[in-house]
Every structure is written in C-alpha cells, then in structure tokens.
Amino acid sequence: MRVLKYILVFLFLMGFSLSHASVKVDPKLFEFAENLTNEQDTLRVLVLMDDKLDNSLLPNRYDKDEVIRFLKARTHNQWQQVENALQNTNQLGKSIVIRKIYWVNSSFSADVTPRGLKTLAYTMGIKKIYANRAVFPEDDINPPLPVELPYDLKQIKMDLVMKDYPDITGKNIIIGHLDTGIELNHPALANKVLVFFDNEKKIVAQAYDIQGHGTHTAGTIVGGDRTTNIFGMAPEASLVSSGPLGSYEGVLNGMEFFLQVGNENGGALFPRLINNSWNCEAAPDVELFYKGITAWEAAGILPVFSAGNSGPRPKSITTPHEHPSVLAVGSVGSAGLVSNFSSRGPGIFKGQETKKPDLSAPGENIRSSYLDGQYTSISGTSMATPHVTGAAALLWQTNPKLTPVQVREILTVTTEAVDINGASTTPGSWNANYGYGKLNVYEAIKMAIKTREINPQPEPLMPFGIGDTSRVLRFTSPDDIMAYSIVRMKPEPLIKTDFQYDQSFDGEGWVTPAEIWE
Q1: End-to-end CA distance of the chain
Q2: Which whole-number Å values give the CA distances from 441 to 149, 237, 334, in the listed order?
Q3: CB–CB of 500/295 below 8 Å?
Q4: 197: number of CA atoms within 13 Å, CB side?
Q5: Residue 346, preceding peptide bond in cis (omega within 30° of 0)
Q6: Displacement of CA 36 from its chain's centroid (Å)
Q7: 305, β-bridge pairs
Q8: Which residues form the catalytic set?
Q9: pLDDT, tens digit, 9 for 90 and up, residues 381-423
Q10: DSSP 65-102
C-alpha cells in the first residue's frame, strides 16, 4: 500500500491523474494557465468539488436546520478528500492558497499561480474550476418622476390593498437582499436594515452602497411609509442585506451568509425570501449558483430573481434565473405592456425549457430611494423584482404558515392573465413575455386570507370515494377551490437530482486540462 501511495503522488507531480478527463476548466483561465514559468502572478478561482450524494442522507425540505447540517457535512467530507490530495502535491499554501470553503454549494475559492491551477486541474475530487467572473446589477437610469402615488403601485392594485387591508404592511417579516449594498442613513430606509454583511470583507459591517442600485431595490421593497412617502411595498418589513455585488466569490459569500445568519440566531433573522436583482457573467455553466439556489429553497427560502434585461430576443433569460426554484420576474411599463428590454422566455436549464419568467411587474421609471438621501427613477427587471418580493412579504404576514411553493402558487394564480401580446386571456396559461401574467397584489392577499381560513386536513370520504357533501357546499367559487388546493400543497421531499448535477447538465465551452497543458 505504501508503494502504491508513492506511485500516486508521483503521478500527481508529473501532471497525471485519473481525474484529468473529467475536470472542466473555465476557458477564461486558458491564457493565464499556459504560462507555467510565471510563478509571480496569481489569479482567484472558484473550485466546485465533485460531491457524491447518498439518497438516505438527504434532509427534509423546509427543515432549515437539517438542510444546513446536511450541507456542512457534505462539504466537510468532500473537502477532506481534496485537502489530502492537495497535501500530497506539496503545493497547498504555496502555489495554491485557499481563501474560503463554501458549504452552500460544496466549493472553495483560492488564489493560484499557473502551476497551482494545473495542480488543481489534476486533483481527484475536483469537478469544475471557474474564473472569478463578474456579477452585475440589471438597470438603466432614467430622469426622476414627480413625487405622488406612483403608477407602479396603482397598476398592481396596491391602492386597494392600502384601502381594504391597511394593517398588511409586512410587519415582522424578514426579507433577504443581495445587491450592491444599502445606504444606511437614507431617511426612507431608517431602522429597516437589521444586519448588513460585507461580501468582500466577509464580515458583518455598517451598511453602504457602492452604486445606488441596492438602495433603489431596497426602497421598493421596504422604503417609506403608508402616509407621507408612499413607494415601498412592505414598509414595516425588515431587511437582512448582503453586498456589494462584484464577483462570483462575493456573491457566494452572500448566498452562504443568508443561511448562516438564520442558523446562528435561532431563526430570528432567517429570511423568508431573498431579492436578487442581478445576473452573472456566464461561464460555460453556473452550477456554482444553481447549487446555492437549491440550498436556499431546500431550507425554506423563496429565491426571487429578475428575469434579465436582454429582451426582446427569445430565450434571453439571463443566468442563473432559469433555475426551476427561482421566481423570475419580467418587466412591464405604465401601459401594462412588456418592456422592450425585459428578457423573454423560456429559460434553458439542464437542456430543458423552464417557464421563465414566472410573472411580470412594473419595471419602467420606478421611483425609489437612491444615494445621498435622494430619490430617482430607474428602469429594469431589477426594478420589477422588488415589487414581487414585497408582495410575497405581504402574503407571509397575511398567513405565516405558507411555504415558498404556496407563496409562488398564490402569486402566479392571482395574476392579471394576459396573452403574449398583452391582451386578457384565460388564467393559468403561460407565455414567454409575461409568464403567467401581471402581478396583482390585491387578489394575492385575498387568496392568502382564504388559505388562512381553510382547514388543511382532508375530510372523510363518503362511500365509493365521493367527497363529503358538506365540504362541497362550502366551496362557493373557483377561488375557494383554488385556496383549498394551495393549502393542501406539500413540499416534495428532497431527491438526489435537487443537489446533484450530472454531465448532461454541463454547459458548452469548457476546456480540459489536456487542451491547456498537453
């Protein structure tokens, strides 16, 4: 056995490994990787480990503590194997400096020299090596509009919500916010940020915003009040925020923070949902982020994402918004028609089409908070998304027992249904421009109230399987029947494919180690 061990070590040092055929390298790293004689320059990379899953160990969906334990144990076991292999190369801490291990998706970040990159590419237990690519907010700045009850709130029927349900303001609901940051001292956001996590420094810090985009999206979610400064969807909700955007590594720091902050505080700061008005520069695939999104949803967090600003081209949903667990939001303007820039569906995930966007909301000339205590109007699916995030927070205040899948269902079945041209159509039909339709917060809250009033337990059946007639008599409308079906929805148990991505998923354009060094 000792002789075999030395042979394997020798093969590693010589650049040979049984894993070399399967490791995939980001093509953006090609030029850097070729120059093996250069040991002065370093580059940051994200490394996805090749985690193997045991179906018997999978956690229950929406049991956040169990999900987090599973994620940490999975990553710990895989990292031990990779660390042992790297120790044998004698490059750990030299040409390979580990920065952080991410249990949210079984990966790690590292600073590497070209030699270190080659060592990683020939290390057993490694699946993919990504460049630390860029992550962007999705927006276009436009001139400010007059201060009044804005068109966007009228269009989604928030005026009716404020009239008929004045107490539904998002109170006691915690919302995650992953963006460029937040201007902490903006008067419209005072005392609304519970915790801010600095993605770059990897510490809890005083909130700041590098660009203004995050302050704007935060304002649409929780800004202002319901009397003198009306523009936020859920002004009595609170934010747990992470920023700035910038790189793959920074966003992964944020993605993990949202799970950790809830776990460390006994669930007191656990966000029910997270607003994501960003997209990432696409590597051949973004499995790094897909696994993080899966972890969020498995733990009971609803991931709300912008659909992208790459329209009107078909199949232009930007990454990673095509993931099935994402609630993807397109944009409409003041006339209620799809915005020209709004990305069109369907999304493509693991080679299959996904019905993205899920729904649409106002995203043109949206007035909200901005830098230096100011306000401005911005357009983009980034601006549409926080309307849906805020709406979901109002649903959770209405019925705290709702699960992410139930909130998603309520938001989509209560939309103003339109066809691909924007004309009214039969509810329940999806199209590539609007999804299932345009957000209607008033109808969504009414449906959430119905779900709160329904007993979720099935009633006894009469002989031959005919339902109890007393139950049938209580259903006086299709909405009653829909509410009952939503209450009866149960989260599906986690299955292996929720966390595992096989080769059929991988995007195109990866480079093999052989193509670089042999």
Answers
A1: 30
A2: 16, 16, 16
A3: no
A4: 25
A5: yes
A6: 37
A7: 276, 328
A8: 179, 213, 382
A9: 999 999 999 999 999 999 999 999 999 999 999 999 999 999 9
A10: HHHHHHHHHHHHHHHHHHHHHHHHHT-BTTTEEEEEEE
> If you write DSSP's letter for every residue of 120-186 in order, what string do you get?
HHT-TTEEEEEE--BEEE--EEEPPPPSSS-HHHHHTTHHHHHHH-TT-S-TT-EEEEESSB--TT-
Nearest to 440 by CA among 424, 460, 456: 424
pTM for this predicted structure: 0.91
Give residue 479's pLDDT band: very low, low, confident or very high (50, 70, 90).
confident
Of 266-270, 294-298, 368-372, 403-407, the poorest mean pLDDT is in: 266-270
Reported as a single tens digit per residue, the pLDDT across 62-118 is 999 999 999 999 999 999 999 999 999 999 999 999 999 999 999 999 999 999 999
Short-list 171, 174, 143, CA closest to 365: 143
| CB neighbours of residue 313 within 10 Å | 8
Backbone angles phi, psi at 283, to 5 degrees: -75, 180
> 487 vs 248, 303, 401, 482, 497, CA distance in Å?
38, 21, 9, 9, 26
The string of pLDDT tens digits covering residues 289-323 is: 999 999 999 999 999 999 999 999 999 999 999 99
Q: Token digits for 134?
A: 């860029």
Which of 464, 414, 422, 421 lies closest to 439, judged by CA?
A: 414
Nearest to 317 by CA among 347, 287, 284, 354: 347
Tokens at residue 148, please?
A: 């009044």
Domains of the chain: 2-132+498-517 (no CATH), 136-451 (3.40.50.200), 454-487 (no CATH)
